[in-house]
């Protein structure tokens, strides 16, 4: 039977019941995407992990106009790149960007991330209980950090944040396209400005390296912003929601801050329900489970499903801040492993160490079932997170 | 057993340094793997196998020699 996507999400922090049903039947399933195109949905951890790193799949399609699509938004819903050169192209971009995310760079950024977190929490304290944690912390922090990293001037950050949200809209293709165009234009203006006033930031360093055109730098800027922004906004809000939904775990973190790193890995695993999934196109015929996938077929890797596969994660629906060695797939696997993974970890660790330390009595101000995730966002960002203390 | 780390394949994910920081480090320049210990003690092998399995790019392997 062919399943229609998206699967209905009943609880804001739990995988859709229909997904559990699919997982009990196999690891790969014929589906129709939101726009009615045929595709395969992969729901088994081992298969997702293998396929996400498998060069026989790619983002490009030999005949892009004929390719199935996840939806009609701009980024990551259809084929991208040149079929003949995609792997080499990606390796080149990776090599260009990777030095900017090296451990030394990230370490240098950590105190800034901590200071920005402290400022936002000072403000939250002044505001007093009750408050919307999504608006007060989860929303603003990642923008501030990415602005710091890229060297986006302070006065531009609201605009930057607005464009990024528009670009990521999965329900409104016109808004998404407009947002992306404006981000790119903004990136180009910023690159021109950095040419005159170099500073200690990624754009300035890319310019100084001399092997990238202004256009490429603007494109990288836009992608880094886009990839690093809403994903983290989403994780902070959802992570806080998971911890607050079980006051014992919030308290445990407060009492024992050494739990923060494992709590962060669990925050990366548990509420990441995969959104629309990672789209890949088979570059050749291949076998997955008992199915033959044909060259050109759309294969959707459901990271959320993999992260909740009971064969790998004991009691997968339970949020457990002390879970050890959790091999979640939230940052992907293989050559395209998230370049910002360390930065995301730094941000999340700073947030949850500080939040639980300073607000030991924080609790949800609404029942957890009432929390709503935005249907416009591929990461299912929370619309609000009312808390009191 | 000898640990082999392939810098050309490495994507700088840092899982090795995170899992076994006394055996692996990351280069300051580009985050790629730096092997600190080539021949780990036998009681560390289980940890190395976990590193091999968790490395996203398959840059870490164990050789028999």
Automatic annotation (TrEMBL), chain B:
InterPro entries: 3Fe4S_ferredoxin, Divergent_4Fe-4S_mono-cluster, Fe-S_cluster_ET. It holds the Pfam family Fer4_19. The keyword Electron transport applies. Coiled coil: none annotated. Keywords: 3Fe-4S, Electron transport, Iron, Iron-sulfur, Metal-binding, Transport. GO terms for molecular function: 3 iron, 4 sulfur cluster binding; electron transfer activity; iron ion binding. Its cofactor is [3Fe-4S] cluster. It comes from Nonomuraea terrae. SUPFAM superfamilies: 4Fe-4S ferredoxins. Residues 1-64 form the Divergent 4Fe-4S mono-cluster domain. This is Ferredoxin. Ferredoxins are iron-sulfur proteins that transfer electrons in a wide variety of metabolic reactions. The keyword Disulfide bond does not apply.
